[in-house]
Automatic annotation (TrEMBL):
Pfam families: VID27 (PF08553). Residues 245-502 form the Vacuolar import/degradation Vid27 C-terminal domain. SUPFAM superfamilies: WD40 repeat-like. It comes from the Eukaryota. InterPro entries: Vid27 (IPR040458), VID27_C (IPR013863), WD40_repeat_dom_sf (IPR036322). It comes from Leishmania mexicana (strain MHOM/GT/2001/U1103). This is Vacuolar import/degradation Vid27 C-terminal domain-containing protein. GO terms for cellular component: cytoplasm; nucleus. The lineage of its organism: Eukaryota, Discoba, Euglenozoa, Kinetoplastea, Metakinetoplastina.
Length: 557
């Protein structure tokens, strides 16, 4: 027995395909007679065993028919990237036609029986609103969506963008794939750190011996790496299961963390020895960040993340009592025992603002680590100033130095979040200082373009690992760099800010590196570094202008 299908919306109009140039402007070519098509939104109950990767019991479809005959059906998802034009009462999206990726558009017609009461623009708006509810349903697993729900109002419209019928260019950070270089390190790479002071990339690798790690220091050159001058170091007495590293200020010592020993270990890089081990309050430490965004700003203070708590440590203090916290308190006093899923990642701003992501999709914004000492005296409270519910597990997170922007990574897409807002008293604030209420800015979804998604193998193969703002010296942040499978992607921060005003989708640049990317680094204005399981590499990057839209016309047969 076939699963039931419900029609949520249907309307007449005309289906067009983007057909290239006509005179001086691109145009859309009708794929049949005008107003002989219908567009519908369908809700389809899945049969047992076909729930798919999002574990939803339903799927939603865009269906287009001509004179009652089906033209095509296409599943809806966050990756579809539907856009709309109010002046032309049209929606635009990528579709596979004759095994080729094409851009199609549907122009709505006012219903003949209600032409005086219902306009084509209104029907287009109703379609977009229902489409947003469908994608939100898939995102959250909710079968029914309340349009008045706070989090629907925050996230619901993030999956659709306005398309403007105009000529426009936007800044983009473009990779130069012809100059991409890699140096083989052998299998077993874990993590890496870049030393600008010594012009080295330090790669931490697995070792065949227990309680041992291998470090490789590769000198960087204008063209990549001097592998012949690579230095190797075997570190013994170390947690061989460590997953992360930070260079301390001065680049002569390194912290290792994230291993099964639950400790933070300090390495002397000159001698290859563990000189100190910190087990703050005997709590497992998942990850460590500079307390104030960078090593130079943070000194000896680091922000640690446990399963359900964050806290500062000072590595000058006794390793057994190095937590910087209110007298008489322990980190467990500030833990969140009722978390649905554990904390997964954290980041700090230059003045110590703290953002934490978790496995349920919650993002918490703190003025500082709970219980840590405030610069002006007193201690930071246990409760976050703002909680944002994104509905998808957060696997990585970063924040700009000034705390104005956050980039949160889910496996399927990135969320670009602005923390600055105007409160109910018309005063400007940030979500780190006061609770962001109903007036919080809507986030922007960053994802591969339809062409990039196709090259990656389709939407099911899109799998983000990490996304970070650059740390180019001497400037404010200029771009977001992400790893997605074996691809690197960049988005210009200026283009993202422009999108907040224009509503246009944000263009990016992408390059394939041949292996799954474990991590990226953007510490130099001229290139992006990356680590794979077997290599370390760099690819040049430069800012350019890219045409993102052109004025189009509607063609006729």
């Amino acid at each position: 027995m076939s699963a039931p299908t419900m029609e949520l919306f249907t309307n007449q109009g005309t289906l067009y395909q983007y057909a290239g140039e006509e005179g001086e402007h691109p145009y859309y070519k009708p794929l049949g007679d005008v107003d002989t098509f219908t567009i519908s939104l369908l809700k389809h109950k899945k049969t047992a065993g076909t729930t798919g990767s999002n574990n939803s019991s339903v799927e939603y479809l865009i269906a287009v028919a001509e004179d009652g005959e089906k033209v095509f059906e296409q599943p809806i998802g966050v990756d579809l990237q539907l856009s709309y034009s109010a002046p032309t009462a049209s929606v635009h999206w990528p579709a596979i036609i004759d095994e080729e990726l094409e851009t199609v558009a549907f122009r709505f017609t006012a219903p003949a029986a209600h032409v005086a009461q219902v306009t084509a623009q209104l029907r287009m708006q109703q379609f977009v609103e229902l489409y947003n509810r469908c994608t939100y349903s898939l995102l959250t697993g909710y079968d029914e969506v309340d349009p008045e729900d706070e989090w629907y109002q925050y996230l619901g419209a993030a999956t659709t963008r306005e398309v403007c019928n105009e000529d426009a260019t936007e800044p983009v950070f473009e990779f130069d794939p012809t100059q991409l270089t890699k140096a083989s390190t052998g299998a077993g790479n874990i993590c890496a750190a870049e030393s600008l002071k010594f012009n080295r990339t330090l790669v931490v690798k697995k070792s065949n011996e227990e309680a041992t790690l291998e470090l490789q220091a590769l000198p960087q050159t204008e063209r990549g790496f001097d592998r012949a001058a690579m230095e190797k170091l075997v570190v013994r007495g170390v947690d061989g299961t460590s997953t992360g590293t930070l260079l301390e200020n001065g680049d002569v010592t390194m912290l290792l963390f994230g291993g099964s020993s639950a400790a933070v270990q300090r390495l002397d890089l000159a001698h290859g020895t563990v000189v100190q081990e910190y087990k703050p309050a005997d709590l497992p430490v998942q990850s460590v960040a500079y307390a104030n965004h960078t090593a130079a700003n943070s000194g000896p203070v680091y922000t640690c993340l446990g399963r359900n708590v964050a806290f500062n440590i000072d590595v000058r203090m006794d390793p057994r009592s190095c937590v910087v916290m209110e007298d008489g308190k322990q980190p467990t006093d500030y833990a969140l025992p009722s978390l649905r899923k554990d904390f997964t990642c954290h980041a700090t701003s230059q003045n110590g603002y703290l953002v934490i992501g978790d496995g349920s999709g919650n993002i918490r914004l703190y003025t500082g680590p709970p219980g840590a000492r405030k610069p002006a005296g007193g201690y930071f409270p246990k409760t976050a100033k703002t909680l944002l519910d994104t509905k998808v597990p957060i696997v990585d997170i970063d924040v700009t130095a000034d705390g104005q922007y956050i980039v949160a990574t889910s496996t399927s897409f990135l969320l670009f979040i602005e923390t600055k807002y105007v409160d109910s008293n018309d005063k400007e604030s940030t979500g780190f200082q006061t609770r962001m209420g109903a007036r919080k800015p809507q986030p922007i979804i960053l994802q591969p373009s339809p062409e990039q998604t196709l090259r990656m193998g389709g939407a099911t193969m899109v799998h983000f690992q990490t996304a970070k703002f650059d740390r180019f010296p001497g400037t404010k942040e200029l771009c977001v760099t992400a790893s997605c499978g074996d691809y690197l992607l960049t988005w210009s921060l200026r283009a993202i800010e422009s999108s907040q005003q224009s509503g246009r989708a944000v263009v990016n640049s992408a390059v394939a590196v041949g292996q799954t990317v474990l991590s990226t680094s953007a510490n130099r204005a001229s290139h992006v570094g990356f680590l794979t399981g077997n290599d370390v590499g760099v690819v040049p990057v430069h800012e350019a202008k890219k045409e993102v839209s052109r004025t189009w016309t509607w063609g006729t047969e």
